[in-house]
Amino acid sequence: MDQAVAKNLKGFLQELGYPFDSISALLDSGNMTRYFNSKWLKSSHSFAILDQKATDEQLLACSDVSNIYQFVPPYFAALSSKNGLQAIERLSSYEQLIGPIEIGTFKEGEKLRVHISYLDDSRKNSRFSLLVDQISLISLLRTGTGKLIKPLSIGSKFNYGKKITEYLGLSSQSCHDNYLVFSKSNLLKPFLTQNDIMWNFMEPGLKKYISDLKVDPPFKAIVQNTLFKLIAGGNFQLKDVANALEISPRTVQRWLKNEGTSYKEQVNEVQKILALNLLQDATLNTAEVSFLVGFNNVTTFYKAFKRWTGKTVLKYRHQMIINKNSINAAS
């Protein structure tokens, strides 16, 4: 990012009344560039201040892709896509140029679930960071199509606030995962912003930036995101993941062991994340959820869920209904 773009970005943020005056280190263009371009801002102190002082109006403005795409190459590239499916694919490929993020996708029939995970604790525990990433994705689809695209469902452990809920057009779900669900019909709507010439121009540079970043995310994060894509198809044995990653099964096991985990533990983690969220969908019965997360036998799924959560499936679903009614009543 050149100095002119950095200056424009700083001006945009200051016009919003952003609380960066409380984070003096961010105000010099070098550090500003790191946050919005090819380096990671790892200061948990900075995110803590943003969580405390940034208003929801400011958060929404900073999530508006029409305001920020010129500062953030991955969003520029995503807007050049032919539709939302391709845009999400491109964003997931180059999101690490913005921050330590992994985006996984999971197909549910005519729906697509998008899972966001962070590779550092400062973002993992930041409401500001997560909501900006989720809302920016929605804004990307709306900006690209020129239509009011709404997710079918959205959730995290954070409170979304009244103004954000109004923007989303639906109430959020309280859960342990960071996710959004979209209908494939919405994701296949053509982008008015499609620009193959710009994409062909940008792609080599983005690939070089990723290579120069030289970031090795935890191998378990890579395995988890591969599992998100494979579980829905029913082929998620160790050999299937190894083939998808183009390495040997023994290498997968060895690298996971080096990180203090195992392939079985990663499968259980992804199945748990998916089950917790899919069970919130009232249109799916338990047998369907069991199948979607890779179980051939509902009884086995019941036992696994009790082992993961200490709750029965029925108790969990009842609690989700109570929570949803409470949120709706409050709004």
Automatic annotation (TrEMBL):
Residues 217-319 form the HTH araC/xylS-type domain. This is AraC family transcriptional regulator. InterPro entries: Homeodomain-like_sf, HTH_AraC. Pfam families: HTH_18 (PF12833). Gene3D superfamilies: Homeodomain-like. Keywords: DNA-binding, Transcription, Transcription regulation. The keyword Transcription regulation applies. It comes from Lactobacillus panisapium.
